[in-house]
Amino acid sequence: MKLHTPIMFATLLAAACSQPKVPSASITAELRGLKDSVVFISIPVADSAKTDTVPVKDGRFTWTGNITEPQKIYIGTSTRYLELFMENTAVQLNGNIDSTDQIKITGSATQDAYEAYKKSIADITSQEDALYPKFEEVKDNDSAKAALEASLEALREQRHDRAKAYIKAHPESAVSVNMVADMAVMGEYAPVDSLYRVLTPEAQQTATGVRLAKRIAVLKKSALGQPIIDFTQNDVNDKPVRLSDLKGKYVLLDFWASWCGPCRAENPNVLKAYNKFKDKNFTVLGVSLDDKADKWKEAIKQDGMPWMQVSDLKGWRNEVAQEYGIQAIPFSFLIDPQGIIIAKDIRGAALHAKLAEILK
Questions:
Q1: Angle of helix 142-169 versus helix 109-120 axis, rounded to 10
Q2: CA distances from 239 to 137, 236, 335 (A)
Q3: What burial class does residue 208 get, using C-beta atoms within 10 Å of its C-beta: 0-12 exposed, 13-18 middle, 19+ buried?
């Protein structure tokens, strides 16, 4: 057997040591109140996600993996849901699971940047937080509710302006890419696309950036001023209903589900709008993201919704929702008699105001 000389061994050892080590990501968590169970760590990959199940003991858990680029990941516990910007580095979580806003996250420079941004808009978010409880106080006062909604909308506009300024100042940042991606969930095509174009080419080519580009292409199909995409789905009696059969009317295309709390809370408002404007060339077509017919039909009965309802009972994979890129509900399109989208995602007092404006 041929042996390596000391010089040859030293050369091989040096070569081995010179090989770059692939850095790994890790999370070490110590969270008071976290029960012995498991947590689910979900990392977006392509158009889905990779999810690891990690055991919890005495409020502690550890995870290791590989993060190819700074990105937002998600941690699901039995009672709470956390999200953080992760990198190929060691990250520590410390705090109380019942006070997620107070959990300290260290080790991720991208998370630090995000925390700094959140601190920079705290003057706005604190005002928003103070307004939400007041809705219960004025639940029977439509004018007071409208005033609250107007105040919240003004604050949202301020927050949006701050976000735009941050993205323009940090076009290379993973935080900026994620901000634009968040806006694209329920946002309008033109402003989202405009901000996407602000991002650096490198940011656009990240995994999050590539997913964002696909999302923007979907938004373009359902942008304001675009003709609505026609479809046919079955009603509660398993009879086909085609959207274009309603052409000639103003139509609120309302995406909802029996299991969606905010949807059920908005249904009485839609009912009030329907009753007020149904004799003025207006109707509603509900598209349910349910997957169980009995629960869908029971919710229609409980909420007293007299308008047409359709569903393919495929849940989030509802073909209409997929075509329009619906990622959160409740969501709606307001369509004019020619089948053109004239408003999106309007609810509460804003829905009544828009209908009053166009149906004088």
A1: 140
A2: 43, 7, 23
A3: buried
CA distance 125 to 145: 19
d(CA 268, CA 274): 10
Phi, psi at 223, each rounded to 5°: -80, 160
Distances (CA, A) of 332 to 11, 127, 254, 315, 317: 67, 27, 5, 17, 17
Alpha-carbon distances, residue 187 vs 178, 227, 325 (angstroms): 14, 17, 11
**Distances from the Cα of 324 to the Cα of 62, 241, 284, angstroms:** 39, 18, 17
Closest CA to 284 of 272, 297, 292, 296: 272
Q: What is the largest CA-CA distance in the chain?
A: 97
Strands lying side by side in the sheet with 341-344 = 308-310, 282-288, 250-256, 331-335, 341-344
pTM across the whole model: 0.75
* Beta pairing partners, 44: 49
User: For 69, which DSSP code?
Assistant: S
Q: How many residues does the chain have?
A: 360
Q: What per-residue confidence (pLDDT) applies to 101?
A: 83
Q: Which of 273, 295, 297, 279 is nearest to 346 (CA)?
A: 273
pLDDT at position 145? 84
Cα(171)–Cα(329) distance, integer angstroms: 30
Residues 71 and 110: their CA atoms lie apart, in Å, by 8
In which residue ranges of the chain is pLDDT below 70? Answer: 1-23
Neighbours of 3 (CB within 10 A): 7
What pLDDT, on the 0 to 100 scale, is given for residue 4?
45
Q: What is the β-pairing status of strands 250-256 and 282-288?
A: parallel
Structure tokens at 53: 């199940």
Contacts 24+ apart (CB under 8 A), 158-166: 158/124, 159/121, 159/124, 159/125, 159/128, 162/120, 162/121, 162/124, 163/121, 164/195, 166/117, 166/120
